[in-house]
Amino acid sequence: MALKRLVVDVHTHLYLPRYASLLRSRTTLPKIISREDGERLVILKDEPSGGRPIGPVYTERNEKLEFMKKHDIDISIVSTANPWLDFLSAKEAHSMALELNDDLEEYCSTGPALTGTSMRQLYGFGLLPLVPEITTESLLEAVKQIAASAHLKGLIMGTLGVGKGLDDEALDPVWDAIEAAGLVVFIHPHHSIVNSETWGPKQNGHVLPLALGFPFETTVAATRIILSGVFDRFPSLRLLLAHSGGALPQLSSRLASCIDHDPVVASRLKHDARFYLGKLYLDAVSYGPEELGFVGDVLGRSNRFEAGSSSTASGDRVAGSKRMLFGTDHPFFPPLSSSEKWKSVVENLDAIENVKGWTEDDKDGVRGGNAISLFNL
């Protein structure tokens, strides 16, 4: 009998009870408010519909396990959803990050409570107290805590770092500690949604900031990391980009050309910009096979741009698929009916299945095998 190939969800969120309580206690944004029709998370001023409806699916472990069971997901690597700790003082962020990391370890390590879920496993991305005025010692304490946790395999990080972006030299000791610990950093956007005036009339809801703002925010953050030489200084650093890397795969050759025409920037880098794409991991939250195949092609060709490389296009798509990992973005974008499966699951699995040129081994890798290897599960 053939062995079952595991399905691993690397992009799945939660609001731990301690974090939800913090948001309920707040009188300024971001906050959770109660209405007659239930609780809502409010991040933006004048937010459409008075905020995003939330409920037990955002906070309860059993709900996560039910979701995994319904969609035949074997392992989930969960992460706190934005806005993280950006709105806290340095002292508050420090203590909250450590407490939430302990909470997440407990969330992941507690035995399954549902019949038939005994083989489903939970792991997590911890939090750093990434706020202005935080000390390097505080950040390194959180890295050490995450590295010592049995079920925390990395950390989720927004695009602002400690306020100046992820290319801030102040983060170099943090990158060094993360690299040494072998942790994976999940880069996830948030701040583009806050600049609501960019996206036109509020009748557009969250469509533009989520569909375009989030991916472009990731694109800019990852590009700044590349341009600052982070990968040259920390060559074993492992970064996982949300939403298939945004527009970076599409614009990577244009980026390389612009760098070539700027000697000051070019002199900082050891490789062509396209080489660094092969250092990245991307989630497979693309929703379409054509988009997914394209991203795989771009990732796979990166070895052509290594200094002195004589490699060709042969086998590039296979190599690219090995840097991509399935995700669902649960519990966001829920179905309208409780009997339906979540489109973010169905459409992303269908996309993986229908990429032209991928072998069954390639597809199995993206569905779960690549995550098993990356996170040493």
From TrEMBL:
Residue stretches making up the Amidohydrolase-related domain: 120-377
GO biological process, any: secondary metabolic process
Keywords tagged on the record: Decarboxylase, Lyase
InterPro entries in the cross-refs: ACMSD, Amidohydro-rel, Metal_Hydrolase
GO MF annotation, one: carboxy-lyase activity
A Pfam family per the record: Amidohydro_2
Keyword Transferase in annotation: no
SUPFAM superfamilies: Metallo-dependent hydrolases
Listed GO CC annotations: cytosol
Cleaved signal peptide residues: none
PANTHER family, A to Z: 2-AMINO-3-CARBOXYLMUCONATE-6-SEMIALDEHYDE DECARBOXYLASE, ISO-OROTATE DECARBOXYLASE (EUROFUNG)
Family in the record: Belongs to the metallo-dependent hydrolases superfamily.
Name of this protein: Amidohydrolase-related domain-containing protein
